[in-house]
Amino acid sequence: MQPLKRFIESIGQTVIDLIEGLGRSTILLGQTLMWIPRPPYRIKQLFQAMEFIGVGSLFIVLLTGLFTGAVFALQGAGAFRMFNAESLVGSTVAISLARELSPVLTGLMVTGRAGSGIATELGTMRVTEQIDALYTMAVNPVQYLIVPRFIAGLIMVPCLSALFTLVGMAGCYFVAVVLLGIDEGTFISQTNWFVDPDDLTSGVVKACVFGGILTMVGCYKGFYASGGARGVGLATTQSVVVSSVLILISDYFLTAMMFE
Amino acid sequence: MKDIITPFKVGVVVVVAVGAFIWMFGQVEEGIGDDAAGYEVYALFDDASGLNPKTRVTIAGIDVGEIARIKLEGTEAKVVIRVNTPLRSDAVIAKKQVSLLGEYGLQLSPGYTGEPLQHGDQIKNIQVDVSPADLMADLKKITANVTDITESLKSVLGGGEGEEKLVSILTNIDRSVAELRQGIEDNAPKVDLVVDNVVKVTEQARRLTGEFRVSATRILDDAEAVTRNVRDIVGDNTGAVQEGFDGVKGAVVRMQDALDKLDGTLDAARSIATKIDEGEGTIGRLINDDKLIDDVNDLVDESGSFVRQLTRLQTIIAIRADYYLSRGAVRNQVDLKLQPKPDKYYLISLVDDPRGATSVTETVISSSDSSEDPVIREQRTVTEDRFRLSLQFAKRLYMFTGRIGLIENAGGVGLDVHLLGDDLQISADLFDFDSNVWPRLRLDAMYTFFTHLYIAAGVDEVLNTELTDVFFSVGLTFNDEDLRAILVTAPTPSL
To answer: Which residue has the higher pLDDT, A16 or B250?
Structure first.
């Protein structure tokens, strides 16, 4: 009887934790949004966050984009060759990159690199009571720590996504035109024809949302970390996992809203 | 230094990213569908399968548009396309397969003679390409027919029985050929005999022809002898011929009597002619009296002049409408121009002026009552919606035409200047000297750009500035020939 009771208790506790976590994260998001327009503006912290999220993730994002475009071109050309339609490779890869691959993969890459870093940094500050120290200095930690990171995520992830698309198309062009010998004029004209401005803007909007998600999750997990070094590590792991899952889930709903 | 490097790095990334986005945006924004100059037309297809939004629309292989949207309208597919090239109502749109993947495109022929298509118009000429499904259906029918034939052949020739039939047919053919060969060999002597007989018959025919020639000569000789005998017979019967001559003589006598009567008639006619020559009787006076002849000539001349005048009189009817800008009212005028000579005409006009006809009456009342004014003058201006009449005489001298007479119920004069081969007429009318401080001066320029249609513009009440108004006009003119044509062809009411 005792194990069953513990099992039911654990389920109930999990549900309670989930709801509590949802509530706290919502409150944290509300506080963040509330603090955005209010001075003092932490410009220095904002640029530092942008450098950390954007510039720091630039290399890994560009590398991912280049090879993503290249491998999609390689696979697409093989598939389209069966129908003598290799000219569609460019447009197919371009639409895939603009709509889905760029924002999602950029989000995941930045989550892995910057989101985890944010969670670790804030978690460490939490367990070492630096955040409490901020309170004692009459500095609101939400405004000082979270707002700059949140804004940086909103700005830099779309930028990285746009660069991902550009570099991905460069990789696709290299493989399709240079290596596989697909006609360059057809490649470019088909790409220009089939890709809409809406495809690009939808990718940017998605990236913006993903930037907000990954920074907020990272901040939330770090901000409420507990349990010493192990708690910080756990918060980091949870931050990456939750951000990745939320990015993929929200991607589905965003796509449904934008293209259906 | 760190403080500077961080924003710089971030700025570089942002600038590059924004630049990349704008560049990509510009690259893909060049699609036809976003072209502001484009417009939408639609076509109704029975089957729009394979067509999708953004499917290309081409003319001669060049992209000129794309499918904007497809929706069901009744039982047909309404395919709305956006194009950036002019199309006409005889344009033809065709659904063409562009790849083996079932991908279709639309091919346009823009049309050449129809009316230009506007936004929202329909392309009514549709060509439907043969789809793989149609080809497969046709192929299926052919395959079924081939199958039927092969099955029939198989049922006839297949199996052991069919093989026996085939062997039997071949055996029969072989036997028939052998019998034919034997028949030819057996009948060869008979054929030779027939040929010999034919040769003999032709020789006999040739011999008979020679004998007939001799007989023909003899027949001609006999004919000559018969002719000679007939001549002899006629010579023996001369008495009978004499009787015939007696009959002819009687007829000549009767003819002589008729000629005598004709002589008498001619004598009477000669007597009448003599009397006429001498001026006797009515006809003689008519012919011989010079004064009477002159009178008749004068009468004929005058009649001719009158008829010429009548035929030369031109009747011109004009209808004109003037729109006054300030008043926002329309003035209508009907003109009847009677033109006996090219340089002279009489103009009768009936004018429906929105200002109406104004009459001023002044009443003077004298009073002996000391409490009142001794003299009260009441001036009453009454404006009635009444037609105005113009009666003018006009005379043209070179490019100027002067007019004088009644203009809109008031005395006045007018001057027309004719330019551009009379197509352009500039007119000035000065009339109605009493109604206002200054007489009414109307200036207008009238241009006839078709035979019966003219437009005009001008200024009315030029001198009375508080009443000055600009007007634009359009009018129609008809001359004699037009009126005759109208009266002949117009339907006549009947009871």
So the answer is: A16
Residue B302 lies in a domain: no
- Contact criterion met (CB below 8 Å) for A145 and A131: yes
Which residues between 173 and 202 in chain A have a beta carbon less than 8 angstroms from any beta carbon of chain B? Answer: 191-197, 199-201
Report d(CA B357, CA B406) in Å as an integer: 14
A98: chain B residues, CB-CB within 8 Å: 24
Task: Tell whether A229 is covered by a domain.
Answer: yes
Residue A43 lies in a domain: no
Provide the shortest C-alpha distance from residue B16 to chain A (in Å): 8
- Whether residues B150 and B124 fall in one domain: no
Cα torsion for B48, B54, B55, B60, to the nearest 10°? 130
Helix axis angle, B290-312 to B281-288, nearest 10°: 70
CA B112, chain centre distance (Å): 20
Name the residue range of residue A216's domain: 57-259
Which residue pairs, CB below 8 angstroms and at least 24 apart, start in B294-303? Answer: none
Burial of B348 (0-12, 13-18, 19+ CB in 10 A): middle
Distance CA(B84)–CA(B106), nearest Å, equals 14
Strands B104-109 and B92-97: what pairing?
antiparallel
What is the average pLDDT score of chain B? 79
- pTM listed for this prediction: 0.47
Is A54's CB within 8 Å of B10's CB?
yes
Angle (CA) B34 A192 A169, round 5° = 140
d(CA A90, CA A177): 9
Q: Would you list the DSSP string of B166-180?
A: HHHHHHHHHHHHHHH
Number of domains into which chain B is organized:
3
Residues of B in contact with A160 (CB under 8 A): 13, 17
Determine, for residues B28 and A196 on separate chains, whether the beta-carbon distance falls below 8 Å.
yes
Whether the Cβ atoms of residue B76 and residue B45 lie closer than 8 Å to each other: yes
* CA dihedral of residues B14, B19, B20, B23 (deg, nearest 10): 160
Are the C-beta atoms of residues B65 and B73 closer than 8 Å to each other? Answer: no
pLDDT in tens, A137-165: 888 888 899 999 999 999 999 999 999 99
Residue A196 lies in a domain: yes
What's the gap between Cα B391 and its chain centre? 41
Provide the terminal-to-terminal Cα distance of chain A, rounded to the nearest Å: 51
Do residues A71 and A173 touch, judged by C-beta distance below 8 A?
Answer: no
B117: containing domain: 31-129
Question: Could you read off the pLDDT of B113-132 as tens digits, one per residue?
Answer: 888 888 888 888 888 766 66
